[in-house]
Amino acid sequence: MQSKNIKIAITGGIGSGKTAVSDIIAGRGYKVLSCDKIYFELLSQGAFNAALKQEFGNVFLSDGSLDRAQLSARVFNNEAELKKLNKITHPIIMQTVMGRLNGVGLNFCEVPLLFENGFESLFDAVIVVLRDIKERIAAVVKRDGLSEKDVENRINQQYNYNNLDLTKYYVLHDCCNLADLELKTLEILDNIEKKYFQKK
Fold it and tell me: What is the pTM of this model?
């Protein structure tokens, strides 16, 4: 009987395929949260936007909503500015995540900057999605309409998973196609179920 609350993080660099993995897991009936989606929810809260305005000034559109493109361009080209943004947003986002991952069984959350912020200790297990850098660049160029140079800059500012000991995490290599990714994801799900719920 699944009476335990197990929290699993899904992470990986930009363009690694972690959202595709999250979608596959959600498609199997598991609760899967997204830190990015929670961030967008928070943008509708006045106190959250007030904190951003105090730190970054006029980064809002005429209707009062955040100009995400302007803010993104600003912080991804300035490490100090990015740290300021993360200091405001990440603790609030993670507090919200922990409050929502409260159901019994397996509960997942896509956390883009897990290791950068030391949040891995908040989870029972971590799935790390890896992908060849050329494929990551191509995927983000196609998805976001950015130049290859812009994507490379963003990747270079992110965590380098080559410097991480991955032996204690579930590692998923996104290297082929969606069907292959689904098979690998379901294999990891089966292993997690066996570990935490003695599934035979």
Answer: 0.87
